[in-house]
């Protein structure tokens, strides 16, 4: 089992492909450039099983329609942000880009009180609100990594100046949920390079005092 990072769109939002030995995969946050993403998956010979969303800001959902036009897949998202998918005011596209992002699809509400298993993949679901109210991080013990969305970055944290952002809530999410994982856990963020929890605890200025 391994992961691949694919930065997409003007904000270089990281989509991730987590794939197993049988070439099945799950797709995290297909945010933009849907044709490019679909072509990449096809060229690799992967068979997607699901789309997993860390949250529903426009730069994390913009390629969903293109992916679903190629494969019929379930889309997993926190219940608090289901309505954001088809609403440009909620997902932010009405404010930040020149076109409105509207995703209409069948969704699966994430149940954060139990593991999520899809094919060969199993995740511990961590509610990590603050950047947005329905932000979820996916911890995969099989690879020792957490897909953190826009909660924690290398040297920084998610912004909280957007509608529904909450700085104190974000810091609680990082401290109570992410930092409770093993220190060697790889952090796969929504933007930028990967890091580890140990590195962030040592050098991230926002985590001083934790």
UniProtKB/TrEMBL annotation:
The UniProt entry, under Pfam families, shows:
Lactamase_B
List UniProt keywords, sorted A-Z. Answer: Hydrolase, Metal-binding, Zinc
This protein's superkingdom? Bacteria
Which cofactors is this protein said to need? Zn(2+)
As one GO molecular function, the record gives: hydrolase activity
Q: Which residues form the Metallo-beta-lactamase domain?
A: 12-191
Is the keyword Iron in the record?
no
Which residue windows are transmembrane per the record? none
Family matches, as PANTHER family: HYDROXYACYLGLUTATHIONE HYDROLASE GLOC
Under what name is this protein listed?
A: Metallo-beta-lactamase superfamily protein
**What phylogenetic lineage does the species belong to?**
Bacteria, Bacillati, Bacillota, Bacilli, Bacillales
């Amino acid at each position: 089992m391994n992961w691949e990072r694919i930065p997409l769109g003007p904000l270089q939002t990281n989509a991730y492909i987590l794939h197993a030995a049988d070439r099945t995969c799950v797709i995290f946050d297909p945010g933009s450039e849907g044709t490019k993403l679909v072509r990449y998956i096809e060229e690799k010979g992967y068979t997607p099983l699901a789309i997993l969303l860390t949250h529903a800001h426009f730069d994390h959902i913009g390629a969903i329609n293109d992916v679903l036009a190629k494969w019929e897949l379930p889309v997993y998202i926190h219940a608090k942000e289901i309505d954001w998918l088809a609403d440009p005011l909620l997902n932010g596209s009405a404010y930040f880009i020149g076109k409105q992002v509207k995703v209409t699809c069948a969704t699966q509400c994430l149940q954060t009180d139990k593991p999520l298993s899809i094919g060969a993949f199993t995740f511990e679901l961590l509610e990590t609100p603050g950047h947005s109210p329905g932000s979820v991080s996916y911890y995969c013990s099989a690879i020792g990594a957490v897909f953190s969305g826009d909660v924690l970055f290398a040297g920084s944290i998610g912004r909280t100046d957007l509608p529904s952002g909450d700085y104190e809530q974000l810091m609680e999410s990082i401290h109570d949920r992410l930092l409770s994982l093993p220190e060697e856990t790889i952090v796969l963020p929504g933007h930028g390079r990967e890091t580890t929890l140990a590195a962030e605890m040592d050098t991230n200025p926002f985590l001083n005092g934790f």
